[in-house]
Specification:
TIM Barrel, Urease, subunit C, domain 1, 405 residues, single chain, alpha/beta
Length: 405
Amino acid sequence: MTKTAFINCNLFVGIEDKLLENAWFTVDNESGKLLALGSGKMEDSVEHQVDLKKQYVMSGLINAHTHVGYVNVSKYHYPETEALITYKALEDLKNGLRGGVTYLRGCGSPYDVDVKLNNIRKDFPFEGPGMKPAGMPVSILGGHSDRPLGTPEYDHGTPNYSHLVNSADDVRKAVREQFKKGAKNIKLMATGGIMSQGDQIDDTELSLEEMRTAVEEAHSKHMTVCAHAEGKLGIHYAVVAGVDSIEHGFYVSDEDIDLMKKQGTFLSPTLIAGHQIAVYGKGKMTDFSYQKMCQHVDAFYAHVGKAIKAGVKLALGTDAGTFKNPLENTAKELTELVRAGATNYQALRAGGLGSAELLKIDDEYGSLEEGKYADFLVLKENPLENVNAVEQKDKMVYQHGVRKF
């Protein structure tokens, strides 16, 4: 076994609100996992040593809500083909890693591109975060993600971004199809949304029975389930159905906050997605979508803030791929979580152990503890004092102990 020691740093392990000063840690070069850590003088003998010059070290970010490969078709004027989505996904993944994202969960990818890339990765490696992919989401006809892709001449019949369902049996079939393909997460569209042109955010789309069926089927196959849920009733149905996480949660009620705490349901707010649309969206998207966000953005922050302060389990997701919201800018969500009422530690924990627990990978990711993968960032400033420090453009990014950027 060969080892590398990283010395002379301030280490945020990720399990409590403090730094380990004058710290060091060692990494097994073969497995990429942490062997030991401590402070003061390191007694262990190692083959390689890296002096981090008193900089700040924290676990890599885990983004629990992403859409790799999203393409602004109106900007590029190309059909939304699988080749284009795949090329864009590989670009997104590399840039996301550069931005400090070392693991992610897919929450919808056209043509199941995230699933397909994950399936071939062992034999055809590429740079980017580890992945728990979802592929096609589940939506009702006319719902939030009923979206035709490409053109018939390119795709031999126009495919859809989603499984379009009309019953619990349809939902069960959709989950099984995603399981067969290799998906690890199921995305449900419980309510209307901002970007869809035919609904409002409080439109309740999937039924309680349909979502219960999805959860039962997915959990029987060790898959996680998340629900796009913005309106009050749709959020309630998703929580009662037993999803692992509520995505967005614009109008989460006090009743459902209590139920989420009791059940251990996570909230992945994606505040940055709302912020970008409200601040920069005028004239850049349909007025229908822009006005919807402006109408609801204050309530979005207020309800998320109430859930955070009540102690709901928190994950970090950004809706990466949406308007002015690339995967590489994931760290911006930390700032928005703090703006909504989280402490710096709560925000950082959401981007580490919180997301890792939601994805059920916390035995190997999410904090810099012995036995876990050495996925970490090296920063010039202390993120526990200022979460903006994580947005540093030239930060060092290590994955499995190997420097990537």
